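anyone seen this seq b4? input:
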Amino acid sequence: MLAGIAVGSGGAPVGSGDPGTVAVHFIHTGAGTSVLVVGPTGETLLYDTAAHGGEDQVLAYLREHDVGTVDHLVASHAHGDHIAGHPRVIEGGVGTAYDSGIDRGTPAYRAYLDALSAHDVPREQLRAGDSIPLDGVEVTVLSPPDRALDPESTNVYNENSLVLRIEFGETSVLLTGDAGEAAERYLVKKHADAVDATVLQVSKEGSRDGTTGAFLDVVDPAAVVVGGTQGDPDRPHESVLDRFDERDVPTYWNAVHGDTVVRTDGEQVTVATQTDAPTDPGDLRAAAPISPDVDRDPAITSTVLDGDGQGDAPIETAVETPPPTQTPTQTTTPMPTEAPTPTETVVPTGTAIPTETATPTETATEPSPEGSRSTVTVSAGSPSPPTGPRFGVPANVPLVGVVVVGLVAVLFAARR
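predicted toks r here
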């Protein structure tokens, strides 16, 4: 389902929303994950706020895009590399905060709770089946379940990340936080029909113990986005990139693509980036990194993705390519056949008149190199030669001679 191409600008205001469009901004923080969702009416949802050192980029991005109060602030889980900026965002104004409630007293989580209390922000604890009321958009919680996954594991926070499905029309984006293999098994088993997505946010910034092949096959994304961890040789891990490569999934990585914005009108999706870095998973590591501090107003490359959430459409770039130079095709157009003008010819008496046979003409059509069709006129043969003289008598013999010869033949026959 490919149609028009939407071209965005990194610094375009989004606080008022774009009627009929949902934008999902994967912010290049340089450290950790942060995703801003802007609904068609301008209502906002902020999913995570990066690690310490990355929260400045989140706040700068919100200012640059005219986002004042964040309507819905989500903590995917209690780790500091995902919620370090929550207290500062809360200070700027938050409507409602959401988390799983699974906590063992991490400093970042305590700071988040203290900020909620200090600014009197309402808080909701979510589980699978719950939803977030983002105007015009269906936001569904797919995980964790009521009973926490791997409650005794050291990965209890990661495995119980709030997994959100952002659905608009026929398109969807899946936000996974730091969900690991246990969470993915749960999602495949309990929500196989709901995890298919047009765009997938890669969990754990592409760590080796997430985004398994079995999970990818069920999600079947048209594209994936990896958080912008820089300088970590294991994120995204080569084995994860290989899985994307095996499935021909275009891969966007904040570290080389910069801020990455997914826009959808409910049928078609565009992905806008700060750079034209490759999306082939095998080429990402060799691409030049981009600092999160660079100007966020360059021209942005846009790519159209399939809108059915299956990831089976070809990728088309928005950059206009001049048409190839074509060699003009020489076309022979047959002229209309006109009836010949009668010509009065004086024929000597006794001269046999040659009879001409009309030559049939066929019109053949052959394809030109450019795919157009040229008309070529082909003759069925050379003109037929005139027929010989009647009775085998040369045409220059007078008629009297013919009569005399005939009489002689009659007399000769009578004598016999």
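The chain has ten helices and 19 strands. Confidence is low (pLDDT under 50) at residues 1-12, 307-405. kinda curious what u guys think
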